[in-house]
Amino acid sequence: MTASALTLLLALVAGLVRAAAAEPAHALVGLGPIGLDVELDPSQESLSAERLARRIHARLSDGAPALTLAPVGRDRLRLTVAVRPYGATTLRGFWLPFSGTYGIGPVRLSLERLTTVVGVPEPVRASVWHAERQAAGPWRESPAEILKLLDETLAEFLDAYRRR
Predict the structure, then answer these.
(1) CATH number for the segment(s) 21-163
(2) What is the pLDDT of residue 79?
């Protein structure tokens, strides 16, 4: 009886939980050469913006050869990494021996395109697509987790690009 009740409960919960969908893929129609901006929190000393940019370039070249990166592209792919160190005492509110430091924060990939707004003389940049993941783990493992989360957001971007 309890096993069947547990199975029913899990089935109901599974029906309620689904992956967050990215913004509409139609925003990626007509995408030409894109520029790349990487913003990395200064506390990430073992990663560099250049290394992340090379990884993005390699993944885009493999996954969507028609996409080209150009420094002067009107459309911009922006990676923002705001993973910062937090001490366990700060998170918990009190000190315990052998407490560690944790890397917590978002890894966000967004596509910005120029758009016209009524009443504004110049075109403005607007985020038309984005994917975000939260890093949360031991600080020493933050670089590997950031790379993993970057790969996930790039896979989501490439999937949306193919569906456009």
Answers:
(1) 3.30.160
(2) 98
Q: Please report where in the chains the tokens 């939980």 appear, as a residue.
A: 17
User: And the tokens for 42?
Assistant: 């200064």
Q: Which two tokens stand for residue 118?
A: 């009524």
Structure tokens at 95: 């000190």
Round to whole Å and give the CA distance between 128 and 68.
18
Residue 131, strand partner residues: 109
Three-class secondary structure of residue 41 per DSSP: coil
Output the pTM of the full model: 0.79
Alpha helices (H) along 49-132: 49-63, 88-92
Higher pLDDT, 97 or 47: 47
Buried b (16+ CB within 10 A) or exposed e, 24-40: ebebbeebeebebebeb
- Write the CB contacts of 122 (distance below 8 Å, at least 6 apart in sequence): none
**CB within 8 Å of 75: residues ≥ 6 apart:** 31, 32, 33, 34, 35, 111, 112, 113, 114
Segment 98-157, tens digit of pLDDT: 789 999 999 999 999 988 889 999 999 999 999 999 999 999 999 999 999 999 999 999
Which residue, 27, 81, 74, 21, is CA-closest to 49?
A: 81
- Contact criterion met (CB below 8 Å) for 104 and 115: no
